[in-house]
Amino acid sequence: MNSADTRLCLCLHSIPTLSDALLSRLFLHYGSPEAIWKSKYDEWELLGAKKEAIVAMKSAVQSNHFAVDINAQLELLDRLGAQILPLTDDAYPVLLRTIYDPPPLLYVRGAVSLLQEAQLAVVGSRKASPAGLRTARTLSALLVRAGLHICSGLALGIDGEAHRAALAAGGASIAVMATGIDQVYPRQHAALAEELASSGALVTEYPPGCGPQRYRFPQRNRILSGLSLGVLVVEAALRSGSLITAGAALEQGREVFTCPWAMFHEGGRGCLRLIRDGAKMVDCVDDILGELGPLFTLQESLSLDSTTATVEATEMPRGQQRIFSLIGYESVAVDTLVEHSGMPVARVMAALSALELQGKIARCSGGYIHC
Fold first, then answer.
1. Which residue of 126, 127, 172, 319 is most buried, as measured by CB atoms within 10 A?
2. What are the pLDDT digits (tens) for 192-201?
C-alpha cells in the first residue's frame, strides 16, 4: 500500500466515532481508503452509520484536524518498517477475513506473507509450571518441523516459550499484540519482539501509541485463533485468558487442542475443562497433526484463491461484490450477511441468488459458503 493510502488509513482510524464494525462495512462497500475518503458520507446511513460518525468524518475532511499526530504515526511506521493492511487488501490474511468480526485494519511488522501460511496458535498460562514450559517448548519445535508456523500472544510463560522454541527450531512465529505495533508488552519481551520482527511477524489491530489496557487482551484473542488452523492450550487455570482464545476458536470453527493434567494441578484445571467440553486431548504431536493434516491443503487453496478473489469481484455488481466478500469457507447465515453488509434483506437475497447461479457460492446447513 502506498504512503497516501497509509495516511488515509491512519486518519480514518483516528476518528473515534468510526467504530471498527462501521469501518469494516465501509471498506467492504467502497473497497479502498481513498474511495471511503471521497465517498458521499450521507450514503453511510445505508451502511448503518450514526449521524455523529458522518458529522465527525465531514469535520475531519474539512478541517484536516485529527485526534493524533498523523505525521508522527507515519514516521513511526516507516522507522519500524511496519505497514497497514486494510480488510480488502490482497495481503490481508484470508482465514482471518472469514471470522465474524475481522479487524478493519491490521498493523504488521515483519514478513506479511507469513500471515497467509498454515499456523497453529499455542497459548497458556503466564505463570506456567516447569512442566508446562517444557511441553510448550517441545510441541512448538515439533510443529515447526512439521511445517506449521507458531502463533501466540507475546505474553510471559507459555506464549514466550512457544515463540522462542519456534525460532530456535529454525521456523517462524507470529505474535499478536494487544498494543500498538510500537508498544511491546511486557517490556521483558522487547528483545524477543525484535527477533520476531526479523524472523517472523508482529501483528496488531491497534494504531501506534496504544498502550496495554486490560480489555484489549481478550479482544485480541479472536485474532490469534482467527489467523490459525487451530489452538493448542498447553496449560491453563480455570480463570485464564487462554480459555477465551479457545472459546473464540470454537465460535470460528477452528480445532481446539489441549494437554491433560492431574486433577490436583490448579494450573491445568482449565485444560481438563476443555477436554470435558470436547477439545482434542494431546499427548504427542501426532494428535495435532492427524487432525490438521487435511486442513493444510485447504489453507493453500485459500491463499491461492485470495489473489484472484479481487479480480473476480470487480466483474460483479457492487451489491454482489459486498456479499461475496463476506462469504468464506465456513457457513455464513443470511442474518449475519444482512448485519455486516448494511444491505436490506431483499437485496442480500437477490445477491445470494445471483452468486449461487454463477457457481461462486453454495447453500449449506446454516447459510452459504464459498465454492
1. 172
2. 999 999 999 9
